[in-house]
Amino acid sequence: MRPVDSLVSARWSGLADAERVRSNSVKPIDSFARSGGVGPLRPSSPFSSPAQRCGPRAAGGRLAAALLMAGLAVAAGAVVAAQGRTVWDGVYTAEQARRGAEAYAQACAECHGADLGGGDMAPGLAGVQFAYNWHGFSARDLFERLRVSMPPDQPNRVSRQDKADILAFMLEANGMPAGDAELASRAGPLGAIQFLAEP
Ligand code: HEC
Question: How many CA atoms lie within 13 A of 120 on its CB side?
Fold first, then answer.
């Protein structure tokens, strides 16, 4: 994860979210980190080092923290503006999502549910909880998560292209609109698309 990404992630998901994710019974982030993946590693705290190094001590920690938050907000805003695209900008096609639905039914539905609502053991892949788990990460982070670790017994069973199609299907199921161009299966273009829970 580039430094800028982790800044944005920390800004968007927030420390409270990080706690929430950590305390989930399913622990998606922890288990993924264990599996050696590249995806949403635990967001690092933006406060510890910079505040200790250059925070105006005399003004007190609260002011320093407020200034830091303001700076982060500006930085995050600038990055989002520069990257431009989010999952709400029509980043897959309807045809791709249709293919993805087929691949999903074969490789994922037994655990995550035919309607992506989750099962006894596996979390849902559509809905508010899922969307906020990934809020502020990139489409690449999410892609890498399922590329590296799903299905759990044999991730290589499903091709890279099929996984991009499945991701398109997941975006559709989360209410994100289709567009004119397919979602890529390469890390570069996926990294330029931000996942936001809401438009
Ligand atoms: C054998 C059951 C099983 C199958 C099949 C399976 N998964 Fe999973 N999946 C899980 C479990 C259990 C978790 C949560 C624990 C973990 O991370 O391993 C999970 C977690 C996930 C997550 C993270 C969810 C979150 O909110 O962070 C995603 C994304 C995901 N799976 C996608 C897929 C996709 C796409 C497929 C099909 C290619 C698939 N899974 C197939 C069991 C399964």
Answer: 1
Q: Which of 165, 140, 154, 150 is nearest to 108 (CA)?
A: 150
Domain that holds residue 164: 94-191
CATH number at residue 99: 1.10.760.10
Among the listed residues 97, 174, 91, the one whose alpha carbon sits nearest the alpha carbon of residue 140 = 91
Do 111 and 179 share a structural domain? Answer: yes
From 31, 112, 162, 185, mutation site for ligand 1 pocket: most ligand atoms within 8 A of C-beta: 112
Tell me the whole-structure pTM to 2 decimals. 0.69
- Please identify, by atom number, the ligand 1 atom nearest to the C-alpha of residue 129: 26
State pLDDT tens for residues 72-125.
Answer: 555 555 454 455 899 999 999 999 999 999 999 999 999 999 999 999 999 999
Number of folded domains that form the chain: 2
Instruction: Spell out which residues line ligand 1, taking CB within 6 angstroms.
Output: 26, 28, 31-32, 107-108, 110-112, 121-123, 125, 130, 133, 145-146, 149-152, 158, 166
Nearest CA to ligand 1 atom 16: 28
Q: Decide which of 83, 118, 142 is a domain's last residue.
A: 83
If you measure from the C-alpha of residue 150 to the centroid of ligand 1, how many angstroms do you get, rounded to a whole number?
Answer: 6
